[in-house]
Amino acid sequence: MENKRPLKTIYTCFPQGKHKVLTMSYDDGNEADRRLISIFNQHGIKGTFHLNSGLMDIDDKRIKLTEIKELYKGHEISCHTSTHPTIERCPLSQVVQQVIEDRKSLEDAAGYPIRGMSYPNGSYSDDIINLLPACGIEYCRVVGNTDDFAFPNNFLEWKSTCHHSHNLMENARRFADLHKTQYLYMMYVWGHSYEFDRDNIWDRIEEFCEFIGGREDIWYATNIEIVDYMNAAKNLKYTANGDKVYNPNAISVWISADGQHYEIKAGELKEI
What we know:
Blueprint: E1 10-13, E2 20-27, H1 33-43, E3 47-51, H2 68-71, E4 76-79, H3 92-110, E5 116-118, H4 126-131, E6 139-145, E7 158-160, E8 162-163, H5 168-176, E9 185-191, H6 194-198, H7 202-212, E10 218-220, H8 223-234, E11 237-238, E12 244-246, E13 253-257, E14 260-264, E15 269-271
Parallel strand pairs: 2-3, 2-9, 2-10, 3-4, 5-6, 6-7, 8-9
Antiparallel strand pairs: 1-13, 11-12, 12-15, 13-14
Helix pairs in contact: 1-7, 5-7
């Protein structure tokens, strides 16, 4: 009788076989985003910027809608509701309108589908979580800090590792020191760019980006890139023997099999 082949150990990896990802998340579209984006770009860091389209052209302290396509190029534009109400107190019909109107205006300005969001004032409920997919929203960030590097159980209730004023460098150093490749780790930082002016702490984000940017073992991604990638990884189709994998997605997905890395390209059937 033929010997049974040993079972492979197969892991999902990030692009290029990496096991760590960094993402940044900033709300409200304040003018200080200009300086923050410049810092991110200098260090190869990607951010997601959650904007209130209904306030942008009536508040001199906010980026104008006509500017967002060029200013946020290489980063992600995301919803934050049209006028930033405390939505848990609003009728659900109004919440739907706040999200849809924000999406429509941002999409007109950005030129692509807007599929993410952060909760304004950190306000949400189970009912709101349940209605967001019907509004075209695939993830939503809450407020607060976990001080860890795990993935959320539900991307519609996504809590960050830390605000930039909460243990930022301590978490960054711990993140940089993570070397166990049998795990996937994510560091997620959130805040508002105007806080760097208000609190005179631009040196804090500059130190962080200089320290954590440009590392070969970290994937730098936007919020939606992480969601899309993890969904694509879940959608890979493996043979029962684990010796072949088919990628029905439109993007490449990386895996490791018994310690060897493989890129599974879009539409590819690959032996592993």
